[in-house]
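[job 4471] stage=fold_predict status=RUNNING
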Amino acid sequence: MSRSVLVTGGNRGIGLAIARELAAAGDAVAVTYRSGEPPEGLFGVRCDVTSSEDVDAAFAKVEAEQGPVQVVVANAGITKDTLLAIMSEESFTSVLDTNLTGAFRVAKRSVKGMMRARKGRIILVSSVVGLLGSAGQANYAASKAGMVGFARSLARELGSRNITVNVVSPGFVETDMTAVLSEDQHKAIKGVIPLGRVAQPEEIAKTVRFLASDDAAYITGAVIPVDGGLGMGH
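[job 4471] inference complete, writing structure tokens
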């Protein structure tokens, strides 16, 4: 049966791959986007996840279009990389506000409807950097690590209502963000990945599809790495 799904930051990269994968599975999928245009074939809602008002309005539009949200994927995120010694407070707090507090806003808005229905799926898109660390990304790493504690706390709160909360932790993925790296940087990255390559967005999307499916009904509070072995042991 088709479910109502919302993917934040779903107009490009990993988010778009997730949205298309879930749509291919038969779900009614809406995506939020902050800039640009909505992807063809998906219901798009402009939304800045740093605004509770925007998040509330986006959910209201999605609910009117395709019913109460049953699966939410918190994917929207930004980077502002720089070394700590020269990182501004704004660079730190803005990344946390989008990546971590944005996930809080989206999860909070979705959870009341899920609790009433006594079922739901919340999936947060974190990063291998959240547990592995990365020089020059203290803000990003902190935001992505915070998702783990947030998700596991929600898993304990919501398990009795048949709502699962899980984290997907991608490694390096072939997206616009990694396309700007030089050939030497790509070579260095691949050199530390046991599988020797970066991921395709679709590989992250298929993991999200599994966590959103009935096959994953007994999985909650999990952190699923999709990183080619880069972060194993963390």
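[job 4471] summary: The CA atoms of residues 178 and 185 lie 10 Å apart.
[job 4471] exit 0
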